[in-house]
Amino acid sequence: MTDYIQISTAIDSEEGAQKIADRLVSARLAACVHIAGPIKSTYWWQGQMERAQEWVCTAKTRQALYSQVEQAIRAIHPYEEPEILATPILTGSQSYLDWIAAETIKP
Predict the structure, then answer these.
(1) Peptide bond before residue 82 is cis, with ω within 30 degrees of 0
(2) Is residue 107 pLDDT above 90, yes or no?
(3) Which of 85, 105, 92 is nearest to 24 (CA)?
(4) N or C: lower Cβ tally within 10 Å for the chain?
(5) pLDDT for 36-71, tens place per residue?
(6) Which residues are CB-contacts of 101 (< 8 A; sequence separation ≥ 6)?
């Protein structure tokens, strides 16, 4: 398994996305968080099809920090069930991966 992951979550405001990014980076749970949006989402929620405008946060971090990142997102996310998905980084520039490791806390 890879030591590095990207964690994404979608949220209903740019301000909320920035709060998540600030929380993760300031706590050194992520070396970097990109914010993209607005995007349009279509999804099922409680038996109804919904549409929403959202912003996506993508955090670059280490696999060992996943649980702490999830807890930090859940603590400030307004959704009843937020999207929190981790994708392994299979390969990348070794110097960039070293930077991720250097800028995140050691669990």
Answers:
(1) no
(2) no
(3) 105
(4) N
(5) 999 999 999 999 999 999 999 999 999 999 999 999
(6) 3, 4, 62
